[in-house]
Amino acid sequence: MFFKVRGVTVDAPERLCFNHSVENAAYIALGSNLGDRELNLLRAVAEVGRLPDSRVTALSAFYETSPVGSVKQDAFYNAVLRLSTRLEPRSLLAHLLRIESEIFKRSRTIHQGPRRMDLDLLLYGDVSISEKDLIVPHPRLAERRFVLQPLGEIAPDLLHPVTGKTILELLSSLKSDETVVKL
Question: Which class in CATH covers the domain with range 23-182?
């Protein structure tokens, strides 16, 4: 479908409506340790990329990581993506939870248990939100190598809005026995 605007023929009218000045950069962690972990991550990236008024603008490498917590389970594949979006944080979180439950059939029965897909909203612009069911930056972001390492790959100089430290500074000061291996 073509539109004529001020004498110019345009074949991609949606780009005329996309206001880059109101986009926000959101960083989302992806994790899977059930089924085909690599395929799960790829499918999750595709699903997040289909969100309204949003586009994936960066994706880290995939990492195999040791599970965190007391639940015995298989190793995870993890990654982080940057999403340029006009969605508000609460709406974005609702979409992420919908992808987990509808696409990946996640049920939250075991805390920190095995899952086909876990999508965590790590950062949203430079805002800090602390509400009952929405905390940004993610409360354990600075404690997890399996998040900091892929995040540092795509946004090393990004400032954590609460600590004021860059992602690389957080990563270099992290004391952790987690195993994180780039695939």
Answer: alpha beta
User: 78: exposed, middle or buried (C-beta count within 10 Å: 0-12, 13-18, 19+)?
Assistant: buried
CA 111 to centroid of chain Cα atoms: 20
Model pLDDT for residues 72-95, shown as the tens digit of each residue: 889 999 999 999 999 999 999 999
pLDDT digits over 135-158, tens only?
999 999 999 999 999 999 999 999
Q: Would you state the torsion angle of the CA atoms of residues 38, 125, 180, 44, taken in this order, to the nearest 10 degrees?
A: -10
Instruction: Delimit the domains of the chain by residue range.
Output: 23-182
Task: Please list the residues that pair with 81 across neighbouring strands.
Answer: 28, 59
Within a 10 A sphere around the Cβ of 180, how many other Cβ atoms? Answer: 18
Of the CA atoms within 13 Å of residue 33, those in its CB half-sphere come to 15
* Euclidean distance between CA atoms 47 and 88, whole angstroms: 18
CA–CA distance from 167 to each of 29, 30, 65, 154, 172 (Å)? 14, 17, 19, 10, 9
